[in-house]
Amino acid sequence: ANYFEKRDRFQQEREKYYREKTNLRLKYAALISIGISIILLLSMAFGAVDFNNTNALLLMRGCAGLFALIFVVLAGILIYRVNASYFVDKANPKQKH
């Protein structure tokens, strides 16, 4: 039970870092990129592109993969920024004068 309490407290302490303006921009950019990727893949699955047109099909798959890769990079940057800020602030707490 102690592990789950510590994990919840750790998540709650990092919430303020996720709500910073630059981190929110990263979050929304990541969500937009994965959304575009999903839309491209769903449009191919439901037949928006003729399967005889291989060039368009390959282009859409490539773009979907590229946007998925952009999502992974942006999500990694977001998580790194939040954790780095959290641990720097935890190591050097602001002293009141």
Which key features would you list for this structure?
3 helices, mainly alpha, 0% strand
List the helices and strands and how they pair.
Blueprint (H helix, E strand, L loop, with lengths): L1 H17 L2 H25 L8 H38 L6
Helix pairs in contact: 1-3, 2-3
Explained architecture:
With 97 residues, the protein is mainly alpha-helical. It has helices at residues 2-18, 21-45, 54-91. It is elongated. The model has no long low-confidence stretch (mean pLDDT 91).
Strand content: under 5%
Class from secondary-structure proportions: mainly alpha
Poorly predicted runs: none
Integer-rounded radius of gyration: 20 Å
The overall average pLDDT, rounded, is 91
**Distinct helical segment count:** 3
- SSE succession: HHH
Shape, please?
A: elongated
Spatial separation of the terminal alpha carbons: 38 Å
Q: Give a count of the beta strands, DSSP E runs of length 2 or more.
A: 0
Helix content: over 70%
Characterize the main sheet: none
What does this entry show, briefly?
The protein is mostly helical and 97 residues long.
